[in-house]
Sequence to fold (702 residues):
Amino acid sequence: MAGSGLIETLAPRIERVVGKLPRRVFVLTSAPIWALWGHCMQQSFRDAPVALFLEPGERHKTLASVEKLLRQMAVAGGDRGSLLIAFGGGIVGDVGGFLAAIYMRGIRYIQVPTTLLAQVDSSVGGKTGVNLPEGKNLVGSFHHPRAVFADIGALGTLPERELRAGLMESVKAGILRDRALVRYMEAHAAEVLAREPRALERVIAASIRMKAEVVHKDEREGGLRMILNLGHTVGHALEQATSYKTLLHGEAVGWGMVAALYLARSRGSVTSSQFERLERLIHLYGPLPVLKLRAAKVVAATGADKKNVGGVRRFVLPVGIGDAAVVEDVTPAELEAAVRYMLAQASESKS
Amino acid sequence: MAGSGLIETLAPRIERVVGKLPRRVFVLTSAPIWALWGHCMQQSFRDAPVALFLEPGERHKTLASVEKLLRQMAVAGGDRGSLLIAFGGGIVGDVGGFLAAIYMRGIRYIQVPTTLLAQVDSSVGGKTGVNLPEGKNLVGSFHHPRAVFADIGALGTLPERELRAGLMESVKAGILRDRALVRYMEAHAAEVLAREPRALERVIAASIRMKAEVVHKDEREGGLRMILNLGHTVGHALEQATSYKTLLHGEAVGWGMVAALYLARSRGSVTSSQFERLERLIHLYGPLPVLKLRAAKVVAATGADKKNVGGVRRFVLPVGIGDAAVVEDVTPAELEAAVRYMLAQASESKS
Fold:
């Protein structure tokens, strides 16, 4: 659920979902989040949860961190009935979910995401895991949280750029499955970007709902769930081509959606006016960063995508507004044209 | 399935279960097993599988080994369609299953157990994982193999003591669920212990079937599956009290079943004649090692069992022959009497 004042009332909310709290409750968090919110968060618990800390940053999203944390859980007396709360951004959520997935072959956990991207995307869907030196998210489990509590209040301190990047996942949600969300985000961009609580809650709740529904129908990514990767094939290629240094994930997805829309228009699955409307919506929540890249490099990088099986390149393309389809027959020439179109915009950044 | 000649005909057997073999097939094994059986195993594969090696011994059943192996899989081009074959004893099966559980959030795997204990017990049921310095099997996943191929031929070189210890799990299977297996093992002990292929196949197939049926009804150990722990509460306590150095796992379970039978008789859930018959069966597949332990130490060690939740001690007790129940109200005095009875036998080893 999304709302205000969730963090300070967490314990009774969790008990409404899982029943009486167990003897051991763990909170995985990061020191900065704990410094800001730890006191507030603990006040609704009769017995203070055991706090576990993950160093901030992608480079700590490793099996070595996981082992250290699992050992702390064992030493603190965690058993199969224990509960873990992942309290932080996307990395805390991914690692926390993975700890819960593999500690004693699986314990229950709750997501309390504190960044917009974690709230609208990574906290929902049960994808958990860590990186290997060979690639991101190569290790993990599907393990669903018992509940997600997205507190709008935690977004007050979120940098503007992260807010806008996170909202790209909400734009994606609208394009994929929710025409009403597209209309709302078109009409209320000013309120949403000003973090007006009711506007933000409306957008976040709709984004979570869309993802939860898709995931519910396809828990282990067999088919339908693939549509959630709209904008991600080119998006991941952009992240890789810029060594994960230039773009926030949501920004890469924003540019990736522009390329996907171009492909969809040239194949006739969206009309020109739908194309223009959705492209305008993406830029409404921009600006997306300027990129100086060669199209060939981006096209080459799409070949290494983790979602490719047996060498086939998969794309999610919008079908009108509110639907999408997975296609496997995009030719290199088609893809290159779409990437060129997107890079032409990105090199000047109209937004 | 259990049978002879499975290892040299593995590839077509696997294809009958999972369809065409994928581009990358991994085999996790140990150097000694590979030296004995690697050539034989590879002959049915058109493209040789990528062999991954785990050092033998419980001390290599760690997250560090897991990380090293996952990286090798990534470097070798493993993708979500890849297949892993766990080819070896129980440790290879546990680690192999865990690799398959967490590589790219889960790939398919096949168990090809080469020890009796792995064939009748650990390869069935989907329990996978590794140890932490804080305790055995504290980390893992439930991840079911697509198939188990138990080749009787691999048991030809198994030491006599491991054969007898492994058969304790078959005795357990009979006591729990299969009166016909109890009768067969009573009547054909000589053939089974002489490794007569048909006798061994009969016993192994029945053991696998029993476990698979129980697990199928309770995949994540919510209720029924608990009965598989017959003999394990006291058995684990004996292993711990002897620092895992004196007893093979099956031997500890054998002594644990003697204690469980004593408890069951004193509570009236087995008659005196059932008690004597089942105790005789256990010793028929002995000898179980001599133990010099104080009862109080063993009773204390049962308190630390991983299966205890919220401090409650759980016991599985036979109900007649072919059924069992979980009880939570065994008093320390009752338990101590049962352990004393068992230790009196164990100190002289009648078997």
